[in-house]
Structure formats: C-alpha cells, structure tokens
C-alpha cells in the first residue's frame, strides 16, 4: 500500500472519530433542553393548579359577600316593615325579603359547589407539587450527567483536533488537498477499498484498468464514478465475482 494512502487512512480514522464526537455533542443540547422543558411543564401545571385554588377561593369569598349583602337587605326591609302602616308596602317588603332569602339559598348552593372545587384544586396542587419536585430532581440529575459528558466530549474533541493537524501535515500537499475537498462533499468516507471490483464508497463497478492501476500501488487512484480515493490490500477480492 502506498505510504500516502496509509497516512490518509490514519487521517480518515481520526476524522471519523472527530465526526462521532461532534455528533454526540450536537445531541446533548437538545436532550438537555428537552429535559428542562419537561420540568418546566410540570412547574406550569403546578402554577395552573395554584391559580385554580386562588380562583375558587376568590369566587367563594365573593359569594360570601353576596350573602352578607342579601342579609343586610333583609334587615333593611324588616326595619322598613316596622315603620310602615300601609298593607301594600308591608306586603311588598315581605316579597322582597322572601326574594332575598331565595337568593341566599341559591348563592349558598353555589358556595358548596365552589368549596368542592376548591377541595379538588387543593388535592391537585399537592399532586402537582409532588410531580414538579420529582421532575426537578430527576432532570437536575440527568442534566448534570449531560453537562459532565459534554465537558468530557469537548476535551476529547480538542485532543482529536490537535492530533489531526499533525496527521494532516504528514500527508503530501496535493494528496491532502484532494482529501480535504472530498471530505467536504463525501463526509468521512473518502478513502475506500475495492472489493469484487466495486468502489467501497459509491458501490459502482470499476473498469478493469482502474483495478489494475490500483493494484499496482504506484499512484493515487480515484473512482471514476464518485471521485473517492481507492486502495487495495491482499485481503480484498479485486476482480468482480463471476
């Protein structure tokens, strides 16, 4: 195997490791945000439950004030009855009193409904608080693990990138430039082997002359279909299978 090919294979292996680490790093931030969103959702549900409790309490107090207002009206009408000497006025005030009493009963029924809703809302707050606390504890732990992994991967990536510069510098300029161009368009599968007369990159059948030239290992040979750099070793079946 040509020495240049050997160096390119080593460089390619390094690039594949760099790509793997970069891919892993690219997944960490979305995972972390998804975890935080999960915790935020449970917190949102908790706040919503607390607001429902406040709403039910506010409505219950409003109804209590309405009852007190109706009782004050009843007292006012009763006092007016004591002062009037007209039967029509007395009966009219009696009607208003009965109307107020009926209203008080209706309001008290609604109070009971709101009290039941308040009790249910309080239970929901307790459940939502437990969910939010559990989610926060879980997310904090998982985010901590992701943070540590991210730090380790960044260190690994920095080390790989430092070493890559040395590996790239060891390759002759023309071959390195060719490899770098292909790396941008083909990803980290640039230097590929031949097996059964097929390019290891695009998997297209290669002409016999390309196979012969590659086997001679005297020059760098490219695939006529995809442009990838080809290499051959004795372990490979060079000719196409019959």
List the helices and strands and how they pair.
Blueprint: H1 3-83, H2 87-169, H3 173-186, E1 191-195, E2 198-199, H4 208-216, E3 221-222, E4 229-231
Parallel strand pairs: 1-4
Antiparallel strand pairs: 1-2, 3-4
Structure characterization notes:
With 242 residues, the protein is mainly α. The protein has 2 domains: 164 residues, Helix Hairpins (Orthogonal Bundle); 59 residues, no CATH class. Strand 1 and strand 2 form a beta hairpin. Helix 1 packs antiparallel against helix 2. The longest helix is centred in the middle third of the chain and has 83 residues. The chain starts with a helix and ends in an 11-residue tail after the last strand. The mean pLDDT is 92.
Task: Summarize the structure in short.
With 242 residues, the chain is mainly alpha-helical. It has 4 helices and 4 strands; from the N terminus they run αααββαββ.
List the keywords:
2 domains; mainly alpha; single chain; 4 helices; Helix Hairpins; 77% helix; four-stranded mixed β-sheet; 242 residues
Rg computed from alpha carbons, rounded to a whole number of angstroms: 41 Å
Low-pLDDT stretches are none
Order of helices and strands: HHHEEHEE
Q: What's the overall average pLDDT, rounded?
A: 92
CATH class of the largest domain: Mainly Alpha
- Measured distance between first and last alpha carbons: 26 Å
